[in-house]
């Protein structure tokens, strides 16, 4: 007989327990615990220096935490190198663009598929039929990511020739080309104007609709409040609050530490 509770309460996609990370005696993450379910947009907000990007770097394996547990689909991530974590289904973007500006948009996005490639160096050198088939598959995945990000018409342009807002979409498309289950977006609205930010809102919603869970670090509060299912608020490396957008906007601790006043955003 199947366990009814297990059927109605599936395990979280990402579960973090008492995570700690320090640099030179400064505690960047002080016992953080939270969970993220599949098909959710979860935002992480807080003042500069709160530990948001450090958390992303730990999740991706760039930093190894001093203590705590990170489980993705039930598998412990602590101790795994970045390429192993990426292969498990976690992809990310960065605050600062990490594009190859002298390559085309399509070529940039195809770089994101490399973890899915299976052919070896010898097969590639001999240009075997399996290599050609795989290259076509990777090109199709990259094209799908470009279409999702509204970049199909830009595929043959040099990435460095694009407007800044489109460059940020190229980086998102490259992350999506890796076929992740969890996408970490690190301040995707930084440097965008209001029109571009609203277009980004629609894109994030489409990404979630495509079956990808989103973990979002962002300072643009109207964007955060309009797309997020839940928010995690960090302050000095600790969890200050967690809840729905409406609950976070009404929390006096969050208002005092970060929002700066009882401002209501559309939810």
Mean pLDDT across all amino acids? 88
What share of the residues lie within helices? 25-40%
Low-confidence stretches: 120-126
What is Rg?
19 Å
The count of DSSP E runs of length 2 or more, i.e. the number of strands, is 10
Number of helices: 11
Ends apart, CA distance between termini: 41 Å
Which of globular, elongated, flat, extended, rod-shaped describes the shape?
Answer: globular
Beta-strand fraction estimate: 15-25%
Instruction: Give the class from helix and strand content and strand pairing.
Output: alpha/beta
Largest sheet: 6 strands, mixed
Task: Label this structure with key terms.
alpha/beta; 4-stranded antiparallel beta sheet; single chain; globular; 11 helices; 6-stranded mixed beta sheet; 267 residues
What do these coordinates show?
There is one protein chain. By secondary structure, this protein is of the alpha/beta class. 39% of the residues lie in helices and 22% in strands. The protein has a 6-stranded mixed β-sheet, sandwiched between helices. A 4-stranded antiparallel β-sheet has the order 2-1-4-5, with helices on one face. Helix 6 packs across helix 7. The chain is globular.
């Amino acid at each position: 007989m199947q366990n009814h509770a297990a059927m109605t309460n599936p395990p979280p996609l990402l579960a973090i327990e008492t995570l700690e990370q320090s640099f030179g005696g400064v505690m960047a993450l002080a016992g953080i615990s939270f969970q993220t379910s599949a098909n959710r947009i979860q935002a992480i907000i807080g003042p500069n220096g709160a530990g948001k990007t450090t958390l992303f770097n730990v999740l991706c394996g760039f930093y190894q935490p001093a203590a705590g547990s990170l489980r993705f689909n039930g598998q412990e991530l602590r101790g795994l190198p970045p390429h192993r974590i990426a292969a498990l289904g976690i992809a990310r973007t960065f605050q600062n663009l990490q594009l190859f500006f002298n390559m085309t948009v399509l070529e940039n996005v195809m770089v994101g598929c490399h973890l899915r490639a299976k052919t070896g160096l010898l097969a590639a050198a001999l240009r075997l039929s399996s290599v050609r088939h795989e290259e076509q598959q990777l090109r199709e995945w990259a094209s799908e990511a470009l279409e999702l990000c509204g970049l199909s018409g830009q595929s043959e342009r040099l990435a460095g020739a694009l407007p800044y807002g489109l460059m940020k979409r190229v980086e998102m498309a490259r992350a999506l080309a890796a076929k992740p289950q969890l996408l970490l977006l690190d301040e995707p609205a930084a440097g965008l104007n209001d029109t571009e930010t609203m277009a980004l809102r629609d894109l994030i919603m489409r990404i979630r609709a495509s079956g990808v869970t989103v973990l979002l670090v962002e300072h643009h509060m109207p964007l955060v409040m309009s797309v997020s299912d839940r928010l995690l608020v960090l302050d000095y490396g600790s969890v200050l609050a967690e809840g729905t957008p409406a609950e976070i906007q009404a929390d006096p601790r969050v208002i005092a530490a970060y929002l700066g006043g009882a401002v209501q955003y559309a939810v």
